[in-house]
Amino acid sequence: MSRDKTVSNGVIHNAIAPGTQITGSIIAEKDFRIDGNIDGDIVCQGKVVVGRQGYVKGRMACINAEIVGQVDGKIQASEILTLRATAVVQGEIKISTLIVEPNALFNGTCEMFRKDAPAE
C-alpha cells in the first residue's frame, strides 16, 4: 500500500492580488502579502506585508509587519513593524520594535513594549 507524500520547499505564503477587494476577517498561519484592498481584521502567525498598492482598513495582529502601502486602523506586531518610505499609516500601533524610513507617514498613537519583559 503506497502513501502520498507532500513535499514542501518551506516557501508557503498567502497573497491578495491588486484589484482584489475583501470584506471580512482573515486568519493565516503563514506569511501574508496584501496588494489589494482589505476591509476587516487580519490575524497572522507570521509576517504581513502590505504592498505599494495594498490598503487595509481594520485591525492587524501579527509577528512582523512591513507596510509599503496604506493602513487605516490598529497594528499589533509582537516583534518588528517596518514602515517603508511610501507607507501611510493612520491609527494605533503596538509593537516591540519600530523601523521608520524617511518620508513614511504615521498619524496616530504608538505603544512600545519590550519583547523580553516579564509578564505582569
What is the secondary structure topology, with strand pairs?
Layout: E1 13-16, E2 21-23, E3 26-28, E4 31-34, E5 37-39, E6 42-44, E7 47-50, E8 55-62, E9 64-67, E10 70-83, E11 88-100, E12 105-112
Parallel strand pairs: 1-4, 2-5, 3-6, 4-7, 5-8, 6-8, 7-9, 8-10, 9-10, 10-11, 11-12
Brief synopsis:
With 120 residues, this protein is mainly beta.
Question: Could you explain the architecture of this structure?
Answer:
With 120 residues, the chain is mostly beta strands. It has one domain (21-106). 0% of the residues lie in helices and 59% in strands. It is built from no helices and twelve strands. The chain has strands at 13-16, 21-23, 26-28, 31-34, 37-39, 42-44, 47-50, 55-62, 64-67, 70-83, 88-100, 105-112. Strands 1, 2, 3, 4, 5, 6, 7, 8, 9, 10, 11 and 12 form a twelve-stranded parallel β-sheet that branches. The radius of gyration is 16 Å and the shape is globular. Mean pLDDT is 89; it is low at 1-9.
Oligomer type = single chain
Mean pLDDT: 89
* Biggest sheet details: 12 strands, parallel
Radius of gyration: 16 Å
Task: Write down how many β-strands occur, each being a DSSP E stretch of 2 or more residues.
Answer: 12
Reading the helices and strands in chain order gives EEEEEEEEEEEE
Specify the number of helices: 0
Structural class, by secondary structure, is: mainly beta
Distance between the ends: 54 Å
**Strand content bin:** over 45%
Comma- or semicolon-separated keywords:
mainly beta, disordered N terminus, 12-stranded parallel sheet, 120 residues, 12 strands
